Amino acid sequence: MSQNKVKILGIAPYEGMKSTMTRIASQRDDIDLNVFVGDLNEGVEIAKRNIGSNCDVIISRGGTAQMISKITEIPLIEISISVYDILRTIKLAENYSEKYAIVGYPAIITSAQLLCDVLQSNIDHFTIHSKEEANETLKMLKAQGYKMVLSDMITTTLAKRMGMNAILITSGEESIKSAIDQAVKLYKSYIHVKEDNKFLEEIIRGNGDNVIVFDNNSNIIFDSITSDDIETITDLLRSEIPNTLKLGNHKLYKTINENLFTIQGRKILNQDREYAVYYFRYDKAPSTGQLNGINYYNKAQVEDSFFNSFFSIINTTSKNHYDIEQLSLNKSPIMLTGEVGTGKSQMANLLYTYHPYSNNPMVNIDCGLLNEKGLKFLTTNTNSPLLDKSNVIFISDLHKLSEKSALDLLSLIRDLVLHKRNKLIISCVNTSDESKLAVRLEYMNKLQCSNIHMDPLREKIEEIPDASSLYLGNLNLNTTNQVLGFDSDAIALLQEYDWPYNYTQFKRVLNELSLITTTPYITKDNVKSILQKETAVLANSSSAQIDSEDTIHLKLDASMTLDDISKEVIKRCLKLNNDNLTTTAKQLGISRTTLWRHLK
């Protein structure tokens, strides 16, 4: 690495900013950029792990930058939010039909007011000065019927936690370039200070072990950790600091993610200040094997899975006509039903977060992955989660068990009174198989389950414009391709499609549209091309949907339109089903009305 290059630590609040910073840095020969993604406290932790070495200047944004500035003396440059950044976000929100507002710190709101005046727009805007004020403002807006906010990262995170929609105001390339220019200029004024600590660092690095050094306030001042489990290791060692400073020297062993760690702790004094230093090595620990289909998740893992999921981003669960919180608190088991891709697993995650047992593990018994070893463990082992209590137990994809295994499991649940000692959630895909349907009804009747039916996407086509805008806004955080929205004809095509695999398919199509689009707006031709491909793929795999030995063989050519392909698939299915409209509609996952529309 060149001695003349400025070593910049970038801490971006979202993935898209990281990509832009990396691309800009690759075009310059005067900087070495090391960039991570982390917001607020996570960003502070990243800074703590990196400020002790290999860093001349820190670049970050918003509240994260303010928090980092309080824990280090290394110069920090804040990435600004320009008028153009706010304009781009306003344009992205144009497709959103519900009531929304701009919420942000004074720098954002001042620019937003100017833009609204110039554009003659009546977008409401609210100024905040702290995280606490942001929280109160969002509560007020939600009570007044606002459904979405355009905001900075802090407010966006709080809004999603409250069940509101949010689009983050991202920083454009110009703002990031300006921050890097400032960092280079600032560095030149204090370069000589960086040489003072190199000697000590080289001595520590020469030890040969992984090393991490904490001060007596638990701040990391140096580390040379190479393990992928750095966060878990850091949390463990922080808890050991008081013991290390008291004992002076001690050793401990810890198994983390199948690795056995041997850790040596020491207390070192320097200029009357105490430091806790840890040296450690790790090797592969003996493995006892894993039980397929049985997994344990803590509250943080479940919340992370839900709040970063497609269903949370588009906020579909908040529009559900069920009182989710009340059903979660109810003692009755819950049966989640619906077609493939309607979000049953994420609904289970949401139910878990509302339940008082959420401080205990969520046990997921995945019937699609459950093997003989797993079934034996569930039914015979004294450590079986079926013998535990005060947990949320999620039995997913019940329909994938054989009829005998499913009924045996039901008998065991009743014998052990499992559904009385735990919160039991079960999911099952809708099917025309009478034996599978009989098993599901047996569970619902014998366990007295409450039912939550997850509606298919084709019955919620009015939500497609809002959902598309919200998800595109999220995609823009992770890519440098900033798509502003859809042409009206493109949205209409999305609403006309049947979506046989529902939200899972919808997400995949939006991802692909975002990747192939080279213009600010996704066009009708973009959508038509993707949906034609979707229909062709489904047509070629449709034999798997038919409960007979017959298969559908289609000859497709490039001249066929989406309607032509759909009509051909329906005709072949009708032929196989002796022109029975109801059976055909069920097999294709569409309504009789939709089937008739395609045949016209």
Automatic annotation (TrEMBL):
Residues 324-515 form the Sigma-54 factor interaction domain. This is DNA-binding NtrC family response regulator. The lineage of its organism: Bacteria, Bacillati, Bacillota, Clostridia, Eubacteriales. GO terms for molecular function: DNA binding. Keywords: ATP-binding, DNA-binding, Nucleotide-binding. The keyword Flavoprotein does not apply. It comes from Youngiibacter multivorans.
